[in-house]
Design brief:
five-stranded mixed sheet; alpha+beta; D-Maltodextrin-Binding Protein, domain 2; 9 helices
């Protein structure tokens, strides 16, 4: 595993990054222990979103780890609320982003975590336990992709994770772009179905590899853009930092980058493509 100290912007970011990666090894194991279990029970929260024992267990584990290692840091978590910081540092956690996929046995879910200092993201990661993939970044140190090899020779053998620096794919053509997004129902509920229809007519391919997996695909150069009309603070999590460190642009649909306040929508792409996708999203909005 890469020694993030070599690329960290400061000692405190480095220390938190090292701890974060170790914690994710532990929470990946928790997620896998519940994934595709016949005993998994899904509850519906008051906001009509699903939650499972795995969501609760992972967030609890991360909160305990943060309190143990950085007791003055604050925490914002999807399942257990907010604790204020005394250090200037705040962690934002989504224990399972993509609970619908997780509950149905689909491996396109992940754990999101980001540590911010005075509102500026310093280190963050998205780990995909069922796929054996993880992306992370430290501000100023680039974005990194860790994965298990899946070549024919590697299947069934003792596999060592590959770790390499990663960048967004260079794409300048909307007409040839592969764009990832969530289901059309999210566009409909937010009264932006017009934007979904324009994307479907205009881009090369529009795919619903949604939730955090879309962000992972963008950061690792396997899709060209990622758009979603509605994002909670824990949904957007580490992705503005990851996209920036991978050489891309990440804004909301109004073109605002993350300047201390979490993005409430997302349009992320390479520098050559971002403006074109943003124009498509807002073509009928004046």
């Amino acid at each position: 595993m890469m020694d993030v100290r070599s690329s960290a912007s400061g000692q405190h970011s480095s220390e938190r990054a090292q701890c974060m990666l170790a914690w994710l090894d532990e929470t990946d194991a928790i997620a896998r222990s519940h994934f595709q279990s016949a005993a998994l029970h899904v509850e519906v929260k008051p906001d009509q979103t699903p939650v499972t024992a795995a969501d609760l267990a992972i967030e609890h584990h991360l909160r305990d780890a943060i309190a143990r290692c950085f007791p003055d840091d604050g925490i914002i978590g999807e399942e257990h609320g907010t604790t204020n910081n005394k250090s200037g540092w705040t962690w934002t956690i989504d224990p399972i982003d993509g609970t619908v996929a997780f509950a149905r046995g689909v491996p396109l879910f992940g754990t999101l975590i980001v540590a911010s200092h005075e509102g500026v993201a310093a280190t963050g990661a998205c780990s995909m336990p069922a796929l054996g993939e993880r992306v992370w970044a430290v501000a100023g140190g680039g974005a990194w992709w860790q994965r298990l090899p899946v070549t024919r020779e590697a299947i069934g053998a003792a596999r060592t994770s590959l770790v390499e620096r990663t960048r967004v794919r260079s794409c300048h053509s909307v007409e040839s772009a592969l764009v990832c997004t969530s289901g059309s129902e999210f566009f409909r509920r937010s009264d932006r179905i017009d934007a979904w229809e324009r994307l479907a007519r205009s881009v090369g391919s529009l795919r619903g590899w949604s939730d955090c997996y879309s962000g992972v695909l963008l950061v690792t150069g396997r899709c060209d853009a990622w758009v979603d009309p509605v994002m909670a603070p824990w949904d957007i999590g580490p992705f503005p930092l990851l996209v920036h460190e991978a050489g891309g642009i990440c804004t909301d649909w109004g073109g605002r980058s993350s300047g201390g306040a979490p993005l409430q929508s997302v349009c992320a792409a390479s520098e050559g493509l971002h403006a074109g996708i943003l124009n498509l999203l807002n073509a009928s909005r004046g």
